[in-house]
Amino acid sequence: MNQVQEFNDYRSRMNEKIMAADNKVIKRFFNLDTNAYQDGALDVKTKEMLGLACSMVLRCDDCIKYHLGKCKECGLTDEEIYEVFAIANIIGGSIVIPHFRRAVEYWEELKTA
């Protein structure tokens, strides 16, 4: 199993378990997150690029993988992804570099999935 499938399977399985707990606050938080990335004054593609840059600066590998997948769904090119990577590295500094490396590896795998 490749890391894209492994990540997506794990995320789906755990989200089902979390939602099965039927906690109103958690459900509302997940709903808020989902709605924040819908088309609005900013299009979905732009929002996903923002989500990716923020996730890199915050150094959340799961979030980076999630937003890379969404960016792929939105049709981002390598050039666009690398510009997002550049912004994230400028904002976050050198501590972002290990996450950047893993992001590049995951992006390459997404392109072959």
UniProtKB/TrEMBL annotation:
Carboxymuconolactone decarboxylase-like domain location: 27-105
Organism: Adhaeribacter rhizoryzae
One function term, GO molecular function aspect: peroxiredoxin activity
Pfam entry (one): CMD
PANTHER family: ALKYL HYDROPEROXIDE REDUCTASE AHPD, BLR3452 PROTEIN
Protein name: Carboxymuconolactone decarboxylase family protein
Cited InterPro entries: AhpD-like (IPR029032), AhpD_core (IPR004675), CMD-like (IPR003779)
